[in-house]
Task: inverse folding
């Protein structure tokens, strides 16, 4: 990626524009996210990755579910879809299959992707659907007021667990690997350079790719758990994160205050859904097989 | 425009309703289907799965009906004509995405081969008990179109009509089959491609700079675009303005939601699809649809033989309900008789349109078989008294 664009000038020269502006719907600013929220940081990293990837932005589509993170699609100056709660992945599946030249990015929250949408996640990974899934994990259902989600660690106080969460949580990176993802990484919003690089890598990689980004929700998660503000979250991430590229995902479970293992854990190649389909059909149908031309000629 | 000959099996066939429906989707230009198996509907996608690799398209079996009903919408925004197929329990699961298709004005087709309910009910036996759910099943106010074929031939023909209407009005269209129509086998004539009309998607001619995604045209329907063409558009299930941007205020909500219903007004009366006979001198009119209309046909004939002037009013498009046409009849007949395989659904619409100006007699049936025509006959004869 272009390191120069990350330099923040001390004085902003007249007429200067933020290099991420072309990637955003500036006519929708200001956004709805709270001060100190990490979602904007991840979006910033995503725009840097798009910039670095030199992708033709007309051919990049972004699909979100519902939640604070689900609003990302609405701010990206791309073909963008804000779908229903949990269903970004199956929507993206239809979009990708009908128009395979699109690079389809799914951008959503931990609750959306792993509670109501968990089934779709594992099946898309199993099929190796060519989707790039970015999960902003703020360890809670933020949009609805900070309830327990499938990624909320035990001992955390949430709106629906006022005496502390006792259900075990998912280890998202392990789940993604087990289900078949070809690329699995985890970063926090403290690791902006690494996150941008990972995002850029998945934009160049075929198959079902998954990036988990731990991201602060000062308004709901941290406040209830006396964990300070957005800056405190950065200090916390800095303190407890340990970069271990290639670490076995089974060793990367998260706890409320313990170590956060970050890094790229999985980077492997498997034929994707469309390749598998083509291989099977050509084997069984030979010349009778007609390449899908799903886009309506009319 | 004419249908694309690639998908069309021109000729005379012996097909069941489910298979005929599948051929209808191919003739209509559908090249993408997503489904989840459920009796008695699965044959539609089983045939599609067998046919589509040699036509040039895709079928994907999804992990559930929620996935299937939104995958088709992703495919539509990618540029495809797309549909899903289900029955009772699966139809219930699809409701949220019928609402999504309604508010995002995504043209797509939902085939529901009805079986007995509620819940798992009668998986292998007919019913017509999802008629209200088809209209009102998702939350909020919106409009849809529902078509009710009563034969395999109509399963073919009306599926094409359904796709065409979904493009014209940009609404989800429900194909309301039932187990009997889906599984009965009859002659189906598939015409030449150039004898089949398909409605192309109305893509905008504007440039990305001029274009606004939800700006209604003269017919209240916005023009469309597809992903990947440089429009960089935004689609959301939130209440949105003409640009497609979320807008949480009373005025935008009112404007949007009213338009979602109003754009279907032409389908309510003038363009409603109705099959009528013997109405001119009728004293009793039998309102029916789907498989029940074929049983009713016999009852009407027997009634006429007994000297009762019975007429036929078959709903081909059940939604929007042709209230004006029913109302016009109400002033000059003694009674409507409404047999249906449920405990009284479309009959309430007949009552509403009639507004007390004639009798309305339901002939209900909890599902599991068709009516005995004698029961309908008895209702006609009594209503004529
Ligand atoms: C079918 C359905 N159920 C529930 C909701 C309410 N809801 C909106 S967002 C959300 C949780 C979002 O959590 P997450 O995906 O983690 O996103 P975050 O807000 O934390 O970014 C819920 C439960 C909904 N919109 N739709
Ligand atoms: S509630 Fe939490 S996740 Fe949502 S915008 Fe505010 S800080 Fe971010
Ligand atoms: Mg969350």
Result:
């Amino acid at each position: 990626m272009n390191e120069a664009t990350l330099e923040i000038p001390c004085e902003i020269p007249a007429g200067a524009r933020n290099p991420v502006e072309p990637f955003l719907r500036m006519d929708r600013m200001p956004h709805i996210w709270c001060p100190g929220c990490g979602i904007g940081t991840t979006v910033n990293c995503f725009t840097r990755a798009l910039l670095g990837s030199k992708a033709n932005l007309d051919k990049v589509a972004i699909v979100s579910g519902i939640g604070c993170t689900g609003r990302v699609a609405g701010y990206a100056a791309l073909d963008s879809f804000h779908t229903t709660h949990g269903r970004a992945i199956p929507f993206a599946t239809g979009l990708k299959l009908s128009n395979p030249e699109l690079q389809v990015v799914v951008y959503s929250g931990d609750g959306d992707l792993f509670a109501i949408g968990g089934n779709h996640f594992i099946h898309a990974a199993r099929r190796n659907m060519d989707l790039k899934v970015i999960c902003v994990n703020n360890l809670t259902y933020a949009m609805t007021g900070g309830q327990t989600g499938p990624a909320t660690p035990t001992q955390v106080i949430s709106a629906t667990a006022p005496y502390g969460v006792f259900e075990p949580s998912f280890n998202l990176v392990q789940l993604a690997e087990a289900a078949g993802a070809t690329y699995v990484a985890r970063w926090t919003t403290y690791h902006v350079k690494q996150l941008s690089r990972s995002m850029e890598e998945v934009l160049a990689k075929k198959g079902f790719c998954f990036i988990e980004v731990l991201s602060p929700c000062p308004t709901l998660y941290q406040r209830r758990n006396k964990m300070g503000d957005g800056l405190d979250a950065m200090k916390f991430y800095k303190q407890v994160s340990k970069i271990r590229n290639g670490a076995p995902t089974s060793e990367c479970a998260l706890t409320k205050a313990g170590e956060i293992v970050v890094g790229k854990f999985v980077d492997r190649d498997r034929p994707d859904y469309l390749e598998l389909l083509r291989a099977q059909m050509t084997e069984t149908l030979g010349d009778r097989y007609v390449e899908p031309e799903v886009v309506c000629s009319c | 425009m004419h249908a694309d000959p690639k998908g069309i099996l021109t000729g005379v066939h012996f097909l069941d309703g489910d298979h005929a429906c599948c051929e209808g989707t191919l003739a209509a230009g559908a090249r993408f289907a997503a489904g989840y198996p459920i009796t008695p509907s699965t044959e539609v996608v089983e045939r599609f799965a067998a046919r589509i690799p040699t036509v040039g398209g895709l079928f994907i079996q999804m992990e559930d009906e929620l996935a299937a009903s939104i995958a088709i919408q992703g495919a539509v925004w990618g540029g495809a004509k797309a549909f899903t197929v289900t029955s009772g329990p699966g139809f219930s699961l699809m409701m949220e995405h019928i609402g999504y298709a309604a508010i995002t004005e995504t043209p797509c087709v939902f085939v529901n081969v009805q079986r007995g309910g509620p819940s798992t009910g009668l998986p292998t036996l007919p019913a017509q008990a999802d008629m209200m759910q088809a209209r009102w099943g998702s939350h909020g106010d919106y409009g849809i179109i529902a078509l009710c074929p009563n034969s395999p031939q109509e399963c073919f023909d009306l599926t094409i009509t359904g796709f065409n209407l979904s493009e014209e009005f940009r609404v989800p269209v429900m194909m309301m089959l039932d187990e009997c129509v889906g599984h009965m086998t009859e002659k189906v004539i598939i015409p030449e491609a150039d004898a089949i009309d398909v409605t192309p998607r109305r893509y905008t001619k504007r440039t990305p700079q001029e274009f606004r995604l939800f700006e209604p045209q003269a017919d209240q329907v916005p023009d469309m675009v597809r992903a990947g063409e440089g429009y960089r558009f935004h689609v959301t299930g939130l209440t949105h303005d003409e640009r497609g941007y979320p807008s949480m205020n009373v005025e935008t909500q009112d404007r949007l939601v009213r338009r979602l219903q109003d754009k279907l007004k032409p389908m309510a009366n003038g363009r409603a699809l109705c099959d009528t006979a013997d109405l001119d001198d009728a004293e009793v009119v039998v309102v029916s649809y789907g498989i029940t209309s074929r049983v009713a046909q016999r009852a009407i004939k027997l009634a006429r033989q007994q000297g009762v002037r019975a007429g036929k009013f078959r709903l081909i498009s059940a939604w929007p309900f042709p209230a004006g046409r029913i109302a016009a009849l109400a002033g000059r007949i003694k009674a409507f008789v409404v047999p249906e395989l449920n405990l009284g659904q479309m009959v309430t619409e007949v009552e509403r349109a009639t507004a007390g100006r004639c009798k309305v007699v339901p002939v209900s049936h909890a599902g599991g078989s068709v009516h005995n025509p004698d029961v309908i006959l008895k209702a006609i004869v009594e209503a004529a008294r």
User: Anything to note?
Assistant: The radius of gyration of chain A is 19 Å. The first strand of chain A starts at residue 60 and ends at 64.
